[in-house]
């Protein structure tokens, strides 16, 4: 038997409105807005009533995933601070925040301690925008490879959905947006 979980945000001015764990009001479309992504969110929020703790390898993958997302957000934040509010970078920064919120929700749902962000404000932007975009493309490729490796051993359906979601957004949205922008600035 499964139980569908929805969470109430306690921080900010949301007045305890029911949210889907990703910051969206229930009934709104999910991350990115597509129906398939909304299905993914529904999958993320359905757990067995008796919680099963993932094995140590899976927990390690979860920690590496959120830390990589933290690091990427820190990198994009540093680049935006140095070069300004440039469309593709601000868009990708927002997506990083969504991935982080998704991971935070999964840590809570599995009763695991959510790792702190040790990257925001500590990452350094490269000397020029071209190099920053080139580095961002490289980081998105690393992210894809990392998530593919995790998908080889993770068995929990909601975690498979999360790893797949992050990998696909990285590969098909973030990386392609960055590559298009890189071609424009060259």
Structure description:
- The protein has 5 helices and 4 strands, in the order E-E-E-H-E-H-H-H-H.
- It has helices at residues 35-44, 56-83, 87-109, 129-150, 157-185; strands at residues 2-4, 7-8, 18-19, 46-48.
- The strands form 2 sheets. The chain has a two-stranded antiparallel ribbon. It has a two-stranded antiparallel sheet with strand order 2-3.
- Helix 3 packs antiparallel against helix 5 (157-185).
- Mean pLDDT is 76; it is low at 1-43.
Keywords for this structure?
186 residues; mainly alpha; two-stranded antiparallel sheet; 5 helices; disordered N terminus
Helical proportion? 55-70%
The rounded distance between the terminal residues' Cα atoms is 55 Å
Would you report the number of β strands?
Answer: 4
Helix count from the secondary structure assignment: 5
Mean pLDDT: 76
Helix and strand sequence: EEEHEHHHH
Portion in strands: 5-15%
Rg over C-alpha atoms, rounded to the nearest angstrom: 17 Å
Q: Strand order within the widest sheet?
A: 1-4
Low-confidence stretches: 1-43
Class per helix and strand makeup: mainly alpha
Shape: elongated
Largest sheet: 2 strands, antiparallel
